[in-house]
Amino acid sequence: MLRTVLCVIFLLRALPASANESRGHISVVLLGATGDLAKKYLWQGLFQLYRDEVSNGHSFTFHGAALTAPEPGQKMMFEVLKNLACPPDEHPTRCAVLKDQFLKLSQYYQLRTAENYTVLNREIEKLLEQEELEEAGRIFYFSVPPFAYAEIAGHVNSSCRPRPGAWLRVVLEKPFGHDLESAQQLAAELRNFFKEEEMYRVDHYLGKQAVAHILPFRDQNRQFLDPIWNRHHVERVEIVLKETVDAKGRASFYEQYGVIRDVLQNHLTEVMMYLAMELPANISSTEDVLQHKLQTFKSLQGLEKTSAVIGQYQAYTSQVQEELQKAQNYFSMTPTFAGVLIHMDSLRWEGVPFILTSGKALDERVGYIRVLFKNRAYCTQSEALRDAERSQCKAKQIIFYIGHGELNSPAVLVSRNLFRPVMPEGSWREVTDRPQLHLFGQPLSDYYVYSPVKERDAYAMLISSIYHARKDFFITTENLLASWEFWTPLLDSISHQAPRLYPGGRENQHLLDFEMLGQELSFTLAEPAEFLHTSKQTPDDYQTIQTKFRNSSLVSAWPEELVSQLASDLEAVAARAVARSGKFHLAVSGGSSPVVLFQRLAKHHYGFPWKRTHLWLVDERCVPLTDPESNFCSLHDHLLKHVRVPYFNLHPMPVRLNRRLCVEEDQGPELYAEEIAALVTNASFDLVLLGVGADGHTASLFPRSSSGLGGDQAVVLTESPIKPHQRMSLSLPFINKARQVFILILGRGKHEIITLLSRVGNEPKKWPISGVRPSSGQLVWYMDYEALLG
Ligand SMILES: *[C@@H]1O[C@H](CO)[C@@H](O)[C@H](O)[C@H]1NC(C)=O
Ligand SMILES: *[C@@H]1O[C@H](CO)[C@@H](O)[C@H](O)[C@H]1NC(C)=O
Ligand SMILES: *[C@@H]1O[C@H](CO)[C@@H](O)[C@H](O)[C@H]1NC(C)=O
Ligand SMILES: *[C@@H]1O[C@H](CO)[C@@H](O)[C@H](O)[C@H]1NC(C)=O
Ligand SMILES: *[C@@H]1O[C@H](CO)[C@@H](O)[C@H](O)[C@H]1NC(C)=O
Ligand SMILES: *[C@@H]1O[C@H](CO)[C@@H](O)[C@H](O)[C@H]1NC(C)=O
Asked: Do 575 and 486 lie in a common domain?
């Protein structure tokens, strides 16, 4: 075998095309040489690499490897190689010659044991010596399951590294972990053996022509896109990969991953990054592209359970039962369909929904990215005139069509009423056939449509990039971990959520349609079964009870109704305060209970006088305001981010002064008291909102506290039994000066203290909450049934 290879290399070097100085030898080792991916794409991609590069001075050998013994392995591999073909534009004679050469340069290796790797290395060395070839580098393509990575990586590192001065490129195929932790672990293992620049993690979607053209398109059309590629102009972005096939035959893989890990976490997320990232000045700079991508990952808002809808085709569970030999009562929760709504915290994209959708057993096979622009034109013409080609009344969109579907080829479409795009001449051409075909609500004649001159397989493109050491289209470790960090919380939160079942194919009808409401997604149609259970509880259960608790008003209800009542009462107090004095001074405490109230206010109370509202803190933990433990930080995340309170109406407690936290000499409490005195009439807040701890504490006033329970200090430093220990708090006498005090108490965990409080008098040393008795104001207790009744 070796001898044939030598002859061919000798022969090739004698050919006129490579008669000039050799640029060195490249050995390509394909691990998993007889697997599906290799059969379908990789050998074809390597053959294309050979055809493209053979005359550029490098010599090549191709080493197919697998666990199979040499003879049968060799046979299987040559069965695959036999079928290699050239594209139609290649001259048949040249194709035949090149294919013959390629076959002679390819041979099979069994790679199972450490010794087998040593032998491979020795053979490569021998070839280099005998032929007096410089070594340029080695490519190891891991087309094997990830559990085999570490072992192979160890062998490659210890016995197959190239000679000094030559490069090593290791190509890895997904999955790269199934959550953040496993991805970190795999990354750490690989880092033992390879340097970051040696690793090429493939996301083959990035090699698709329409996807690979997103950045160049944005770059070449900057003059048109700069003014409109932002939240003021973009209505929404859809990134879609629909499949008609199901997971039959792949259930053992699919059951562990599901559609989000299989498609959204990698392919669709990477595409989203290309669309959303700030465009580097030089898009050829791999490093700049990566940095801008990572920046965009940081701007993604965290996903909640309600950010996704998930489904599963009906036959899936029985396929899993059969292929994984599960019992008949086994039900899979793995989603085979998902729609996810993503928002970004960036000035460019704030408020613009990015919708990622993928699924199996759907009605069509298609992949596309659609950027839909807002239509601001108000059209006064008649319908007939509106139809003019460039009418501003028509939809405006840019579509990167990845493939399949009605067009059945990659394409870039730009609405004619936007602009005529700049496209690279030679590689993309304008197409005007099938003008009547409708896509995304418009005939093709409404768009400028461009297709690649030459369709090229994604793997061929990626293999060429590996050869040229262009890392733009590969996923670095940092990039990979950023993506898992983003997706893992959602995956965890839906892992026990039952997906909606769908029949598959056209029968799905509208079952998987979904809609956006603020930050949430939900299926448009209620599930048939849901109709049956709408009246679970009698209406009486929902009525709020009003009576007395500790001689003050008590409002009690189920939590949702209670919070809604509290929010309405709060708005009423705010409106009265504004009518009376033009301002509303509200002091809120920390903890978890107010969070639901904040969310309620942000989502339902659009008439709230936020512009006139001053926000004060009842208490604060001695941590920086940016710390997640900080009450102000929580107020910011759950309320301030969503409403418009003027900056100068915000009054966080000064826990950090002179670059230290809550030090007495810095006089933080005195400063806060002065600020209140300066702005709040009679230092009497319009409303103070409190909670209660299971130990009877309120604000940051704990049982047996040495300060704040009496005396004339308005603001005090206190100690909490729970970390962080140091706190700042309004004092009890000061709270009691308020015009109104609302106390919100939720959950069964509070039942014991509530029972106790119903019996005791005024004993603030034991239970600070019992000392809350506004001197001339009003006190109202808001308790849910669980807190009140246990
Ligand atoms: C080697 O020959 C090829 C084909 O003739 C040519 O394109 C290439 O530039 C040459 N390389 C050098 C280093 O001369
Ligand atoms: C691979 O290694 C094993 C054990 O070291 C050996 O039995 C086998 O013959 C080797 N295969 C080849 C093709 O050298
Ligand atoms: C990688 O290979 C080098 C050189 O062969 C060796 O020194 C090193 O220990 C290997 N790394 C690991 C983690 O085995
Ligand atoms: C852009 O980056 C590439 C790759 O780093 C570099 O070769 C090229 O010179 C850069 N172009 C400009 C205009 O800076
Ligand atoms: C409620 O009022 C009664 C009668 O005025 C009084 O005895 C009792 O101490 C009051 N309870 C509280 C908690 O203030
Ligand atoms: C402020 O306090 C004084 C003295 O207690 C009182 O006369 C006055 O009415 C108060 N002002 C307001 C606006 O409540």
From this structure: no
Distance of CA 766 to the CA centre of its chain: 48
Ligand 5 near 727 CB (within 6 A): no
For residues 428 and 328, the model is more confident at 428
Whether 618 and 758 map to the same domain: the answer is: yes
Spatial separation of the C-alpha atoms in residues 410 and 292, rounded to whole Å: 26
Q: Which of 732, 344, 337, 618 is nearest to 499 (CA)?
A: 337
Total domains in the chain come to: 3
Per-residue pLDDT band at 55 (split at 50, 70, 90)? confident
* CATH code of the domain in which 123 resides: 3.40.50.720
Q: Is the pLDDT of residue 333 over 50?
A: yes
Active site residue 267: yes
Task: From 173, 195, 228, give the residue that closes a domain.
Answer: 173
The predicted-structure confidence for 640-696, as pLDDT tens digits, reads as follows 999 999 999 999 999 999 999 999 999 999 999 999 999 999 999 999 999 999 999
Q: Which residues pair with residue 521 across a beta bridge?
A: 516
**Mutation choice for ligand 3 from 117, 156, 158, CB with most ligand atoms inside 8 A:** 158
Q: Which domain CATH number covers 337?
A: 3.30.360.10
Cα distances (Å, whole numbers) of residue 739 to 587, 682, 683, 686: 12, 10, 10, 5
Looking at the structure, tell me whether residues 155 and 212 fall in a common domain: no
Residue 267, domain member (yes or no): yes
Q: Of 122, 155, 173, which residue sits at a domain end? A: 173
Within a domain: 519? no
Q: CATH code at 559?
A: 3.40.50.1360
Q: What is the Cα–Cα distance from 40 to 38, expressed in whole angstroms?
A: 6
685 found inside a domain: yes
Residues 141 and 230 in one domain: no
Cis previous bond, 774, omega within 30: no
Task: Spell out the residues 6+ positions from residue 270 whose beta carbon is closer than 8 angstroms to its own.
Answer: 203, 205, 206, 211, 475, 483
If asked whether residues 353 and 223 sit together in one domain, one would say yes
Q: Which atom of ligand 2 is nearest to the CA of 70?
A: 13
Query: Do residue 687 and residue 572 come from a single domain?
Result: yes
Average pLDDT over residues 445-454: 94
Q: Which of 678, 674, 724 is nearest to 700 (CA)?
A: 724
Whether residue 273 contacts residue 289, with contact meaning beta carbons closer than 8 Å, is answered with: no
Question: In angstroms, rounded to a whole number, what is the distance separating the alpha carbons of residues 339 and 513?
Answer: 9
Of all ligands present, the nearest one to the C-alpha of 759 is: 5
Q: For the chain, what percentages of helix, strand and coil (3-state, to nearest 5) are there?
A: 40, 20, 35
Give yes or no for residue 15 having a pLDDT over 70: no
**Do 573 and 639 lie in a common domain?**
yes
Measured CA distances, 436 to 85, 366, 442, 446, 447 (Å): 35, 19, 9, 9, 11
Domain membership of residue 2 (yes or no) is no
**Looking at the CA of 154, which ligand is closest?**
3
Q: Containing H/E element for 438?
A: strand 438-439
- The number of the ligand 2 atom at minimal distance from the alpha carbon of 111 is 1
Q: Find the angle CA(507)-CA(512)-CA(517) to the nearest 5 degrees.
A: 155
Asked whether the predicted pLDDT for residue 460 surpasses 50, the reply is yes
| pTM of this structure | 0.78
**How far apart are the CA of 72 and the centre of ligand 2, in A?**
14
- 285 CB near ligand 4 (under 6 Å): yes
Residue 120 near residue 111, CB atoms below 8 Å: yes
Kindly state whether residues 561 and 436 are assigned to the same domain.
no
| Residue 681, ligand 6, Cβ within 6 A | yes
- Give the distance (Å) from ligand 4 centre to CA of residue 225: 22
Of residues 25, 63, 267, 292, which has the active-site annotation?
Answer: 267
Q: How far is the CA of 776 from the centre of ligand 6 (A)?
A: 11
Q: Which domain holds residue 165?
A: 25-173
What tokens does 547 get? Answer: 């009576």
Q: In this structure, which ligand is nearest to the CA of 767?
A: 5
